[in-house]
Design goal:
The complex is a heterodimer.
Chain A: H1 4-24, H2 28-53, H3 57-87
Helix pairs in contact in A: 1-2, 2-3
Chain B: H1 2-23, H2 27-47, H3 51-76, H4 80-83, H5 91-114, H6 135-145, H7 148-168
The chains are: A mainly alpha, B mainly alpha.
């Protein structure tokens, strides 16, 4: 069996990659996908500790995190489509107005 | 031995897929690599004996969320987007700070591992081997007994997200 620390390192690498994606990319869809990467890294952590501690609460939390990811993706992509219809662009640094 | 090989295969696939998600130019390719990374994560859940989460990951994440992503990318994909600059102006600072975060967390990890009280993170857990065994059954019981109120709140959250997505999809907003 694999030690828990290995899973933590994988999760850390995925988390950092997601953070880099959120901070550096300009395309909004790729920023949303980086957020999915971050949530996924958190899930790996939760499930690894669930096995390590021998109780299932971590896995239940992971299910709730996946639910949140679904809700976030639905609303976020709705906002992106509405924005695209109005401004014809996908770049995050051009989203600088609250109302136009 | 096969267990170890499977772990390194899935872990490498997940990390490489993740790196490609944020570096590749085309958003469709990015989505495909994200699907690869999520599938590898599902494999990691399997090595952790979390069969129910494995199924949830594939059905909900890859079958639901990622299909939504690919649909939206196809809806709004612009050819001009491929020729634009993909990284913003502060990306050097952001990359540097993220690397600092990575180094800091790794240092914290190694500090925790050298501490004898938390040494057990380095060893495979022994007590938990058969404890979680009929995984799906136990997750179901826990979800409907101990976590019934969060479960209902999650359904309200999904309803709110549904209404929000419908409002955002209206013609005039």
């Amino acid at each position: 069996m694999i030690p828990t620390s290995h899973y933590l390192v994988v999760s850390l690498l995925l988390f950092t990659t997601g953070v880099i994606g959120v901070l550096t990319r300009r395309n909004v869809i790729i920023i949303l996908m980086s957020i999915e990467l971050i949530l996924n890294a958190v899930n790996i952590n939760l499930v690894a500790f669930s096995r390590h501690l021998g109780n299932l609460d971590g896995q239940i939390f992971a299910i709730f995190v996946i639910t949140d990811a679904a809700a976030e993706a639905a609303v976020g992509l709705g906002i992106i489509i509405a924005f695209f219809r109005n401004r014809q662009t996908m770049l995050a640094d051009e989203m600088d107005l609250l109302r136009w | 031995m096969a267990n170890v090989l499977l772990f390194y295969f899935f872990a490498g696939l997940a990390v490489i897929g993740g790196v490609l998600v944020v570096t590749v130019r085309n958003a469709v390719h990015s989505a495909i690599f994200l699907i690869t990374s999520l599938l590898a994560t599902a494999g990691l859940y399997l090595t952790l004996r979390a069969e129910f989460l494995f199924a949830v990951q594939i059905i909900l994440y890859i079958g639901g969320i990622m299909v939504l992503f690919v649909f939206v990318i196809m809806l709004v994909n612009l050819d001009v987007a491929l020729h634009q600059v993909q990284f913003n102006r502060q990306s050097w600072v952001a990359g540097l700070l993220s690397m600092a975060l990575l180094a800091e967390l790794l240092a914290a990890f190694s500090l925790a591992w050298s501490n004898p009280t938390s040494q057990s993170l380095l060893l495979p857990p022994r007590a938990a081997a058969g404890l979680l065994e009929p995984n799906t059954q136990q997750v179901g019981r826990m979800l409907f007994e101990k976590y019934i109120i969060p479960f209902e709140i999650a359904s309200i959250l999904l309803l709110v997200a549904l209404v929000g997505a419908v409002v955002m999809g209206k013609k005039r907003i």
